[in-house]
Design goal:
The chain has 83 residues and is an alpha+beta fold. It has a single domain (2-82), classed as Mth169, Chain: A (2-Layer Sandwich), CATH 3.30.1280. The protein has helices spanning 18-29, 53-68; strands at 2-11, 41-49, 74-82. It has a three-stranded antiparallel sheet with strand order 2-1-3, covered by helices on one side.
């Protein structure tokens, strides 16, 4: 079966996000002072061939834990969809 995994990786809230701060300042300079916080993350889409959804989830978990996310500084969540 073919699956699509949509993965969101975000910096943990207690970690400083310099990109987010820069974007927030840019928005203030554009006249949007009501934006209180901006966090920048990664959005990854993976196409996976697996026997079932459970196996696809295991593949995505392994990819996130061993390569895609820095677990010290980032959290991740994902959704699996069938193609």
């Amino acid at each position: 079966m073919n699956f699509i995994a949509e993965i969101d990786i975000m910096t943990k809230k207690e970690i400083l996000d310099p990109q987010g701060k820069a974007v927030k300042l840019g928005l203030e300079n554009l006249g949007l002072p009501t934006v209180e916080d901006v966090r920048i993350g990664k959005y990854i889409v993976m196409q996976i061939t697996a026997e079932n959804e459970s196996q696809a989830r295991e593949i995505v978990e392994t990819a996130c834990q061993k390569l895609l996310a820095n677990l010290i500084m980032e959290t991740y969540q994902f959704e699996i969809k069938t193609m």
